[in-house]
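The protein record now logged underneath.
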Amino acid sequence: MVPLEKSRFARQLASADLEFLHQHVLIRTFVDGQRVFLEGSQADGLYVVSAGRIDITVHSAPGREHLLGRMEPGDYFGEMAVFDGGPRSASATARGACDLWFIPAAVALALLERSPLLASSLVRDASLRTRDFNQRFMRESLRAERLTLVERLAKTIVHDFRNPLNVIGIAADLAAEDSASTSARRSARDRIRKQVEVLNSLMQELLDFTRAINPGVIHAKVPYADLLRGVLLELDVEASRRGIVLDVVGPLPDVVLRLDPPRMSRVFTNLAQNAFDAMSGRTPARLSLRFSMTRDEVVTEVSDTGAGIAPDVMPHVFEPFVTFGKAHGTGLGLAICERIITEHGGKITAGNLPEGRGAVFTVRLPIPHNIDTERMVPGDQSGAESGRFV
């Protein structure tokens, strides 16, 4: 146990002030886990720890409590609300059996008037404590945010992986039946392969999301039209299967850019797949690509004839885990697109076409100059006329 006169609060007091304090102080005991006071409650005094330990905590959200500090024997706490007259800014909880000296607010204020040295000591302690509490709170907040992100990511993985795994399990059971025909086994094999592709796609999205941006990377020089032709060839098959018209308006840009082809291809694949899902069951169903160029950038617009992006979703469309109507996915696709475009020094924006005619995503990529880029031979646009890409 720490005597009151040896505590951080009373050690600066003169003999007369100590005698005044002893005449008015009270001793209170608390058992393990008992609240000394709650955040937001009205303050009636401050406390000095004689024996035991006290945890000072705050709540950032329902069910989330952050430890700001632990008061040891000789420490005092609860003075802030006493001095400013406001409610308690944190909660105090006993850890183990505790003996506390309770100093009523009126007594504490009277001592401050009697002892300038006490006032100076409390101001210094308050400054040091506030600095320490802020650092602790920031660390706890960042830790809580990371845990929240991990929790959301885990829920996303479990939710989106469960359905393909169930299909694989059912198909495998059917294929293993002794009475299964050759055609049934072939159908089960095809279903399993399709679901494996879905799982690979989901895992790739997660890997892309966790990949850090390296701003110092110098990408290879790639003819932008060649990259687009490869992407469009793949998308044409999926569009035809879904009964969607894939429309390339105008010639493909004839500029060479600094690109990471696989990652840039993934941007347009993600945008197209989102558009395909948005147009499911709608007529007409058309995915359009338009291009324009300035001296400093090439602009690619990807638009669809879906329902468009809801106004409440629009401000959050590139945030992780935000989905709006996609049947399967992690909610990371557009966040990944934005990260890839940023990695290339560009910008991606989202909007809706007039009169509710669908959504449009605009990708702007910088055109490097001098030795960093090469213009393609003018007129070399074979297969790049409007509506074609091969």
Notes: The longest strand covers residues 45-61. The CA atoms of residues 164 and 195 lie 5 Å apart.
